[in-house]
User: What shape does this take?
Amino acid sequence: FTCSTDPAAYGENGSYSYVETNTANLNDNIDLTASEDVTVTCYLQPLVPTKTAAGTWDRTVDWDLTKTVDDDSHTGYAGDTFDSIWSVVATKTDSGPMNYVVSGTISIYNPAAIAQTFTVSDVLNDAAATVATVSCPSYTVAPLDTVNCTYNASPADATATLNTVTVAALGNPAQTDDDPIEWTENLTGYDEGTLSDARFDYSALISGTTTQTFPETFTCSTDPAAYGENGSYSYVETNTAN
Assistant: This one.
């Protein structure tokens, strides 16, 4: 007796059975018969899916640094003083989370002694029930073999916490597996930096847009020799922030 190699023979529950009856006869004068049954029950082992799930999103941070001074020019006489205010502005631009992706692998093992052809679907548990795009090298898995598939889903946000795969094949109910989604961020740029101005011995760790001012007083020299032969001199003070 042989179990069928046709998956369709196993119905929807993965099994079927049949009875074979054999009857023997002793000639007409004695007129005896004897019968016996053989019951054959066959099972088709279902496919076994296992999966992984990893969620990522992108975020980009850019910084801009500007330095200004008010006033940027002074003119006066010996001994005069002048006040200026240096300003440095570090501006942070944050894209915020974007480009959400859930990806992973789906392994489909066939424990049966016959090849099985399957379909596969993958869905997230977010409000939109986002459906993943699945790619498999083959949709038939040989006996005692495994087909490894990959998938990608692009949800609108990171609210999905679970990813479920469903594998359907003739001869059995659909089989499922799920995996919790662990989200990680792909950050381009830096969330914080050290803003410094060596002229004023200033240094501070910042994580957002920051404005810092530094007042400074300039004085015309009281030394006549500083004025050379023409009665004047000028100089430039440069202040650099990092």
In short: The chain has no helices and 16 strands. The chain has a mean pLDDT of 96.
